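STRUCTURE:
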Protein backbone atom coordinates (compact mmCIF):
# COMPACT_ATOMS: atom_id res chain seq x y z
CA UNK A 1 0.00 0.00 0.00
CA UNK A 2 1.42 3.36 -0.98
CA UNK A 3 0.90 6.65 0.80
CA UNK A 4 -1.03 7.89 -2.23
CA UNK A 5 -3.59 5.08 -1.76
CA UNK A 6 -4.27 5.96 1.90
CA UNK A 7 -7.28 8.08 2.79
CA UNK A 8 -6.84 11.46 4.45
CA UNK A 9 -8.25 9.95 7.65
CA UNK A 10 -5.75 7.08 7.56
CA UNK A 11 -2.88 9.51 7.08
CA UNK A 12 -3.80 11.41 10.25
CA UNK A 13 -5.39 8.70 12.40
CA UNK A 14 -2.45 6.33 12.61
CA UNK A 15 -0.68 4.73 15.59
CA UNK A 16 2.55 6.72 15.11
CA UNK A 17 0.82 10.09 15.37
CA UNK A 18 -1.43 8.71 18.10
CA UNK A 19 1.67 7.65 20.05
CA UNK A 20 3.10 11.16 19.81
CA UNK A 21 -0.16 12.79 20.93
CA UNK A 22 -0.62 10.38 23.83
CA UNK A 23 3.00 10.96 24.87
CA UNK A 24 2.43 14.75 24.87
CA UNK A 25 -0.78 14.29 26.87
CA UNK A 26 1.16 12.19 29.39
CA UNK A 27 4.05 14.68 29.60
CA UNK A 28 1.67 17.56 30.32
CA UNK A 29 -0.18 15.47 32.90
CA UNK A 30 3.09 14.62 34.64
CA UNK A 31 4.21 18.28 34.61
CA UNK A 32 0.97 19.29 36.30
CA UNK A 33 1.01 16.42 38.81
CA UNK A 34 4.72 16.69 39.60
CA UNK A 35 5.82 13.49 37.86
CA UNK A 36 2.85 11.22 38.72
CA UNK A 37 1.79 9.43 35.52
CA UNK A 38 -1.80 9.29 34.27
CA UNK A 39 -4.01 6.24 34.63
CA UNK A 40 -4.19 4.07 31.54
CA UNK A 41 -7.89 4.54 30.87
CA UNK A 42 -7.58 8.35 30.74
CA UNK A 43 -5.71 7.94 27.44
CA UNK A 44 -8.77 6.45 25.74
CA UNK A 45 -10.54 9.83 25.44
CA UNK A 46 -7.56 11.80 24.12
CA UNK A 47 -7.59 10.74 20.46
CA UNK A 48 -11.40 10.89 20.15
CA UNK A 49 -11.24 14.50 21.34
CA UNK A 50 -8.28 15.51 19.18
CA UNK A 51 -9.31 13.76 15.96
CA UNK A 52 -12.79 15.33 15.86
CA UNK A 53 -12.55 18.75 14.20
CA UNK A 54 -15.44 20.50 16.03
CA UNK A 55 -14.13 19.23 19.37
CA UNK A 56 -10.55 20.21 18.53
CA UNK A 57 -11.86 23.70 17.71
CA UNK A 58 -13.37 23.91 21.22
CA UNK A 59 -10.07 22.77 22.75
CA UNK A 60 -8.21 25.43 20.74
CA UNK A 61 -10.60 28.16 21.84
CA UNK A 62 -10.33 27.27 25.54
CA UNK A 63 -7.42 28.71 27.48
CA UNK A 64 -5.18 26.28 29.33
CA UNK A 65 -5.99 28.06 32.59
CA UNK A 66 -9.76 27.69 32.02
CA UNK A 67 -9.70 23.93 32.49
CA UNK A 68 -11.75 20.93 31.54
CA UNK A 69 -14.99 22.22 33.07
CA UNK A 70 -15.14 25.24 30.74
CA UNK A 71 -14.20 23.05 27.77
CA UNK A 72 -17.00 20.60 28.68
CA UNK A 73 -19.40 23.54 29.03
CA UNK A 74 -18.49 24.64 25.48
CA UNK A 75 -19.11 21.11 24.21
CA UNK A 76 -22.42 21.05 26.05
CA UNK A 77 -23.59 24.13 24.14
CA UNK A 78 -24.00 21.70 21.24
CA UNK A 79 -25.16 18.73 23.30
CA UNK A 80 -24.44 16.26 20.50
CA UNK A 81 -20.71 17.10 20.73
CA UNK A 82 -20.63 16.18 24.40
CA UNK A 83 -22.78 13.07 24.05
CA UNK A 84 -20.70 11.74 21.14
CA UNK A 85 -17.40 11.63 23.10
CA UNK A 86 -18.29 8.23 24.63
CA UNK A 87 -19.25 6.76 21.25
CA UNK A 88 -16.06 8.01 19.58
CA UNK A 89 -13.95 6.67 22.47
CA UNK A 90 -15.47 3.22 21.92
CA UNK A 91 -14.97 3.38 18.16
CA UNK A 92 -11.34 4.47 18.53
CA UNK A 93 -10.34 1.88 21.16
CA UNK A 94 -8.27 -0.14 18.71
CA UNK A 95 -6.46 2.96 17.42
CA UNK A 96 -5.75 4.07 20.99
CA UNK A 97 -4.43 0.63 21.92
CA UNK A 98 -2.26 0.52 18.78
CA UNK A 99 -0.98 4.02 19.60
CA UNK A 100 -0.16 3.01 23.17
CA UNK A 101 1.64 -0.05 21.81
CA UNK A 102 3.61 2.10 19.38
CA UNK A 103 4.53 4.54 22.17
CA UNK A 104 5.72 1.72 24.43
CA UNK A 105 7.66 -0.11 21.71
CA UNK A 106 9.37 3.12 20.62
CA UNK A 107 10.37 3.98 24.18
CA UNK A 108 8.18 7.09 24.43
CA UNK A 109 6.13 5.54 27.23
CA UNK A 110 6.06 2.64 29.61
CA UNK A 111 3.20 0.99 31.44
CA UNK A 112 3.27 -0.01 35.09
CA UNK A 113 1.22 -3.19 35.28
CA UNK A 114 1.10 -2.87 39.08
CA UNK A 115 -0.50 0.58 39.13
CA UNK A 116 -2.18 0.78 35.71
CA UNK A 117 -0.40 4.05 34.99
CA UNK A 118 1.24 5.00 31.70
CA UNK A 119 4.39 7.10 32.07
CA UNK A 120 5.68 9.44 29.37
CA UNK A 121 9.46 9.06 29.27
CA UNK A 122 12.04 11.72 28.57
CA UNK A 123 12.45 11.55 24.80
CA UNK A 124 12.98 13.71 21.75
CA UNK A 125 10.67 12.42 19.04
CA UNK A 126 10.76 14.08 15.63
CA UNK A 127 9.03 17.44 15.41
CA UNK A 128 5.53 17.01 14.03
CA UNK A 129 4.57 18.83 10.82
CA UNK A 130 3.15 22.34 11.15
CA UNK A 131 -0.31 21.16 10.09
CA UNK A 132 -0.56 19.11 13.31
CA UNK A 133 0.41 21.87 15.73
CA UNK A 134 -3.16 22.24 17.03
CA UNK A 135 -3.40 18.51 17.73
CA UNK A 136 -0.15 18.60 19.72
CA UNK A 137 -1.16 21.74 21.61
CA UNK A 138 -4.56 20.18 22.28
CA UNK A 139 -2.94 17.03 23.69
CA UNK A 140 -0.92 19.18 26.07
CA UNK A 141 -3.98 21.15 27.20
CA UNK A 142 -5.90 17.95 27.83
CA UNK A 143 -3.01 16.59 29.88
CA UNK A 144 -2.97 19.68 32.09
CA UNK A 145 -6.76 19.70 32.43
CA UNK A 146 -7.00 16.01 33.35
CA UNK A 147 -4.22 16.34 35.92
CA UNK A 148 -6.13 19.06 37.78
CA UNK A 149 -9.08 16.74 38.47
CA UNK A 150 -9.69 13.21 39.61
CA UNK A 151 -10.29 10.82 36.75
CA UNK A 152 -13.88 10.34 37.92
CA UNK A 153 -14.46 14.10 37.75
CA UNK A 154 -12.92 14.35 34.27
CA UNK A 155 -15.01 11.47 32.95
CA UNK A 156 -18.17 12.88 34.53
CA UNK A 157 -17.60 16.28 32.89
CA UNK A 158 -17.16 14.59 29.49
CA UNK A 159 -20.06 12.17 30.03
CA UNK A 160 -17.71 9.21 29.57
CA UNK A 161 -18.02 5.94 31.45
CA UNK A 162 -14.71 4.45 32.63
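SEQUENCE:
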Amino acid sequence: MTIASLSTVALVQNPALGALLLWRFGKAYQEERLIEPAQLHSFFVVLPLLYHAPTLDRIRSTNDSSGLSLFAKKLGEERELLISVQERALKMRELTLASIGAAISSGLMNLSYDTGRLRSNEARPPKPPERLKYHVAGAEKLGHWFARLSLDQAFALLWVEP
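REMARK: Confidence is low (pLDDT under 50) at residues 1-11.
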